[in-house]
Amino acid sequence: DTIDLETAIQMKKAGCELVSIGVESGNQEMLDKINKRIKLEEIRGAFRIFKEAGLKTLAYYLIGLPWDTKETVEDTINFAIELDSDFASFFAVAPLPGTTFFEYAIKNKLLGDAANGKDAGSYKDAFCLPTVRGHNLGAEDIASLQRAAFRRFYIRPKYIFRRLLS
Q1: CB of 133 within 8 A of CB of 145?
Q2: Cα separation of 166 and 159, whole Å?
Q3: Which of 123, 148, 120 shows the shortest CA–CA distance to 63?
Q4: Residue 23: exposure state from Cβ atoms within 10 A (0-12, 13-18, ≥19)
Q5: What is the DSSP string of 35-61?
Q6: Gyration radius of the chain's alpha carbons
Q7: Terminal CA-to-CA distance of the chain, rounded, Å?
Q8: What is the pTM of this model?
Q9: Backbone φ, ψ for residue 60 (5° rounding)
Q10: What average pLDDT score do residues 105-122 get?
Q11: pLDDT attached to residue 126
């Protein structure tokens, strides 16, 4: 929400090649619930600026926020495709000890439904396999939606063609 074209151009001139951006969600309600304090239109604008400046982009998304539904995750996947960053990563949300989210997960009994029978307290595969369930999605749902996000983002003719040309 603070980038402008002049700054992005200066970044490129200084040798910056790639900008990583924590988009988190393509659903405004989810962004509001995690106190992201940014609007989807501001995110769109930032990506336009980075592209115009010739910078590559890597966008990070969270799958399995406590309030996520299949529809809100679908919004996130569609937003990722719309932004068309050079790279994208879709992480299963992990409530790490010491964070507000960890306290929220304990208070709301969201731990304990980890994928593949793993203990909820295990962070060995955090961000890859769900360590928590949401209010609307179980760990298996989150894992399935995460796989779908990667497939839908990366297995697109436009994306594949652009990568082959780069």
Answers
A1: no
A2: 11
A3: 148
A4: buried
A5: T----HHHHHHHHHHHHHTT-EEEEEE
A6: 17
A7: 28
A8: 0.88
A9: -110, 135
A10: 63
A11: 55
Beta-strand runs (E) in 3-161:
18-24, 56-63, 87-92
By the 8 A CB rule, do 77 and 31 touch? no
Residue 46 has pLDDT above 90, yes or no: yes
pLDDT grade for 114, boundaries at 50, 70 and 90: very low
Tokens coding 69? 């539904």
Contact 18, 49 (CB under 8 A): no
Q: What pLDDT does residue 128 have?
A: 60
Measure the CA–CA gap between 37 and 35, rounded to whole angstroms. Answer: 5
- Type and span of the H or E element at 78: helix 70-83
Residue with tokens 């090649």: 17
Supply the pLDDT for residue 129: 64
